[in-house]
Design goal:
Layout lengths: L1 E2 L4 H16 L23 E12 L7 E12 L5 E2 L8 E5 L3 E8 L7 E4 L20 E7 L5 E7 L5 H6 L3 E7 L1 H6 L7 E11 L5 E2 L4 H6 L5 E4 L6 E5 L2 E8 L6 E5 L5 E6 L2 E9 L2 E3 L4 E7 L8 E6 L35 E10 L29 E8 L2 E4 L8 E2 L4 E2 L3 E9 L9 H7 L3 E5 L5 E7 L4 H4 L13 E4 L3 E9 L4 E7 L2 H5 L3 E6 L1
Parallel strand pairs: 2-6, 5-10, 11-15, 14-22, 23-27, 26-33
Antiparallel strand pairs: 1-25, 2-3, 4-5, 6-8, 7-9, 9-10, 11-12, 11-13, 15-20, 16-19, 16-21, 17-18, 17-20, 21-22, 23-24, 27-31, 28-30, 28-32, 29-31, 32-33
The protein binds CU-O-CU linkage and copper (II) ion (CU) (2 copies).
The site of one copper (II) ion (CU) has 6 residues, from loops.
Length: 531
């Protein structure tokens, strides 16, 4: 096992700080020891934002306001369209252009440590929000990066070790949307026809306050709420016109997996995944969306009658005995009985969003047959053909682990060392499949799916193999999109997935982890060390 030095800057600054502390009077110690606490003089941003994480109150239901943790943003420099504030508890939508240089001054005004991660973005280690950079209340962390990602739907959220689940649950998340030239040429539905849909499940008590518990059971299974929130609001009805729309859907839930489909059986048309637009649209009966995954859908309401509805639902699938309370869409204090057993699957239909046809219009953009050219990586692109980097999902002492280990801030092992500017084959698999049939807690846990997320550049799916022959897989298997760029992939029980991932441009420590936030907080996370 190897360990690298604490990031050098911080190490030096701490050293200097310690020495100074001994030698100098207090008044001279105003300097903050946090790395990146100050903007760099050589970085000239096109866009600058102040982003504050703070406690706030938001009206979600009638009556008492809900106490949340919230990102609040202020545009210091750049196009007016950069920040868009939503009504609910989520942070502002950030809209960036490829090639922009962005500075984000992040201020922690919470009573606990915090750091923010730009999920899906390809940025240097010090700009990635690694949990080792968590800052205390009153401190500032300055992020500076150039937007290298292509057009797509990313997001940002707290990444504070052992607090990610609770901080995201209470509201610390937002969308981060990138656009570029190639996308503009496609003339996809834009502005009011380009809709963000962040899906999160939450539970509320009778006073309209979030219920969140991280008891052992909830940590093992992941926290499941009884109420669906859309864009941080309880309102699920969106009035639309008889034309095409682009839906940017993010599963921002801590643990719940959705099987998204249309209530009238219309097939789902996917145009994008985590990493951006697909090469061409893909029709599917439904889409599986695990925590942190994004899917962009094309939906055309042309020809539908005013007053009619089309409902995006999460459909039943197998995997457990858990049921979502009928009060799902009603919200407010009811649930409670659901999710007491089983870790996966849902046996009831859940309404996610209702689109109400409100207005007839005469024309609509047509779905392009080709979207964004994409080079498929193949085994021939692998830099070290004989090497397969393992991500083994396992469990010891009732704790989930990756590669037989739990997270240590800066720890990595030999197999987690990646040469800079290489393309690696990575195999994500269960350490001991076949044990999934066992009963009780252990059996249930062994048969859990895990959404595995890798920081840094997006990857492509090379292959999937299912070693279990059970019907629960049959109930989800048509919902995976393996043709696009991904940063998170749902590893089903009994499954083995091979991916191809480039590690370009940036050296350092980049986490990979389960995106069931309770699992991540339980240390189901490791680092790759790129050098
Ligand atoms: Cu969205 Cu490391 O996380
Ligand atoms: Cu990430
Ligand atoms: Cu997990």
């Amino acid at each position: 096992m190897t360990n690298i030095n604490y990031p050098r800057r911080r190490f030096l600054e701490y050293t200097a700080f310690g020495t100074l502390l001994a030698l100098l009077p207090k008044a001279l110690l105003a300097e903050n020891p946090v790395p990146n606490s100050k903007p760099s003089s050589t970085f000239n941003p096109d866009v600058e934002i102040d982003l504050v994480a703070q406690a706030a109150e938001v009206g979600i239901y009638r009556g008492a306001k809900t106490q949340v943790l919230q990102y609040q943003g202020k545009l210091i420099k750049g196009p007016q369209s950069t920040l868009k504030t939503l009504r609910g508890y989520l942070g502002p939508v950030m809209n960036f252009q490829q090639g922009q240089k962005v500075r984000i001054n992040f201020y922690n005004q919470l009573a606990e440590p915090c750091i923010t991660h730009w999920h899906g973005m390809h940025v240097p280690q010090a700009m990635d929000g690694h949990p080792m950079y968590a800052i205390a209340r009153g401190e500032r962390y300055v992020y500076e990066f150039e937007v290298k990602n292509p057009a797509g739907t990313n997001w940002y959220h707290s990444h504070t070790h052992e607090l990610t689940g609770s901080q995201v649950y209470h509201g610390l998340a937002g969308l981060l949307i990138i656009s570029d030239e190639a996308e503009r040429k496609l003339e996809l539905p834009s502005n009011e026809y380009d809709l963000p849909i962040v899906i999160q499940d939450r539970s509320f008590d009778r006073e309209n306050q979030f219920r969140f518990s991280s008891n052992r059971h909830n940590r093992m299974r992941g926290f499941l709420g009884d109420t669906i929130m859309i864009n941080g609001q309880s309102d699920h009805i969106i009035p639309v016109k008889t034309r095409a729309y682009r839906l940017r859907i993010l599963n921002g839930s801590n643990a719940r997996v959705y099987k998204l489909g249309w209530d009238d059986g219309t097939s789902v048309t996917a145009i994008g995944t985590d990493g951006g637009l697909l090469a061409k649209p893909q029709n599917m009966p439904y889409v599986m969306l695990a925590p942190a995954e994004r899917v962009e859908l094309w939906v055309d309401f042309s020809g539908r009658k005013t007053g009619s509805e089309l409902v995006l639902q999460s459909l039943p699938y197998l995997g457990s005995h858990m049921a979502m309370g009928r009060g799902g869409m009603m919200g407010g204090g009811m649930g409670g009985m659901m999710g007491m057993m089983g870790g996966f699957g849902q046996d009831e239909v859940i309404d996610i969003v209702k689109f109400q046809i409100a207005e007839q219009v005469s024309d609509s953009p047509k779905l392009p047959t080709e979207l964004i050219p994409m080079r498929r990586l193949t085994e021939r692109d692998i830099s070290q053909p004989d090497r397969t980097v393992p991500i083994a999902v396992g469990m010891r002492h009732m704790n989930f682990q990756l590669n037989g280990r739990t997270f240590e801030m800066q720890d990595y092992i030999e197999s987690e060392k990646i040469p800079l500017n290489s393309i690696q084959r990575i195999k994500i698999f269960h350490e001991s499949h076949g044990m999934g049939g066992g009963g009780g807690m252990m059996g249930m846990m062994m048969s859990m799916p895990h959404p595995i997320h890798l920081h840094g550049q997006q990857f492509q799916v090379l292959s999937r193999r299912q070693n279990n022959s059970d019907s629960s897989y049959d109930s989800v298997k048509k919902g995976f999109i393996d043709s696009g760029w991904k940063d998170t992939i749902l590893l089903m029980p009994g499954e083995e997935i091979q991916i191809l991932k480039p590690f370009n441009d940036y050296t350092g420590l980049f986490p990979y982890h389960c995106h069931i936030l309770e699992h991540e907080d339980m240390s189901m996370m490791r680092n790759f060390y790129v050098a």
